Each structure stands twice: as structure tokens, then as C-alpha cells.
Amino acid sequence: MPDINAAIGLAQLERAEAMRAERQRCFEYYLEHLGGLDCVDLPVVHGSLSDHSCHLFWLVLKESAPVSRNRLIELLNEAGIGTSVHYKPLHRMTYYRERYQLSEQDFPNAERHWRGCVSLPIYPGLSNEELTYVVAEVRRALGNRV
Questions:
Q1: Could you say which of 22, 35, 65, 73 has the lowest number of CB atoms within 10 Å?
Q2: How many whole angstroms separate alpha carbon 62 and alpha carbon 68?
Q3: pLDDT band at residue 70, thresholds of 50, 70 and 90?
Q4: What residues does 104 pair with on adjacent strands?
């Protein structure tokens, strides 16, 4: 590794806990302000959030949600909010599906998560004002269904 890369890495390590704590602030905000929506499942954290990286915040739409995952992503994108879809199940990947003859019906929990999972923005510089906006737009897209 070049010295410059090592120096950058060391400088980032000095800031690692502060950045994690900022992501935790965002994670807690989402939990508090999206917790009342009946059409989503939110992350469940076992143990202390201070032991969690809080690098992603996702919600999983239930079948009762008024929009699909893809439509939610479109609506949030139209509102200027970037989202992601993480963790494509192995049984949906061509190699595993073909090599092991995997079927979607054999993995109902993974399928439910896959069809409904959306990761919301979470990073240290996300302001409370921006978090409020994201929450408001998620609620608007889901019809404020509490």
C-alpha cells in the first residue's frame, strides 16, 4: 500500500467512531419517525445500537402497502431522494438458480424481503431537516398509513 493511502486510512480511522455515531443518530431518527407505519417492517436491532455500524437503514414493505417497492423508489427519486436495494437473494442469481435448481417458492421470507426492501439515505452529514424531509416523503408515498 502506498504511504499516501495509509495516511488517508489512518486519518479516517480517527474519525470512524464519530461517523458511526452520526449514522446512529440517523438510524434512530428513522426508527422513531417511521415506527408507526403499519405497512412496513423496520430493522430490529438486538443489543445496543452503539455496537451496530448503522451503515444501512432499510424498510420492508408489507403486502398491504399501497405501492410496490419499485414505485416507492420512483416516488422518492422524483422527490430528490436516492434509495438503494441491497442483498439480492442468492436463489435469484443466475448461477445459483441454474446450478442448484432453486425456486422462488422455496424461499418465501427471502422473497418477501427482496420484493419489499428499500434502503433509505444514511450518512454522517445527513441533517435533521433532510431526515424530516425523507420521512415526510416516505409517509406521503405510503399514504401516511399509520
A1: 35
A2: 9
A3: very high
A4: none
Cell for 60?
420492508
Number of neighbours of residue 12 by Cβ within 10 angstroms: 10
Cα 69 from Cα 19, distance rounded (Å): 29
Q: How far is CA 23 from the centre of its chain?
A: 12
Residue 106 C-alpha from the chain's centroid: 25
Distance of CA 6 to the CA centre of its chain: 30
Phi first, then psi, for residue 41 (nearest 5°) are -105, 135
**Could you read off the pLDDT of 113-140 as tens digits, one per residue?**
999 999 999 999 999 999 999 999 999 9
What's the mean pLDDT when you consider all of the chain? 94
119: which strand partners?
58, 84
| Per-residue pLDDT tens over the stretch 32-53 | 999 989 999 999 999 999 999 9
Q: What are the grid coordinates assigned to 35, written together? A: 415506527
3-state secondary structure of 98: helix
Q: Report the C-alpha gap between 12 and 6 in whole angstroms.
A: 10
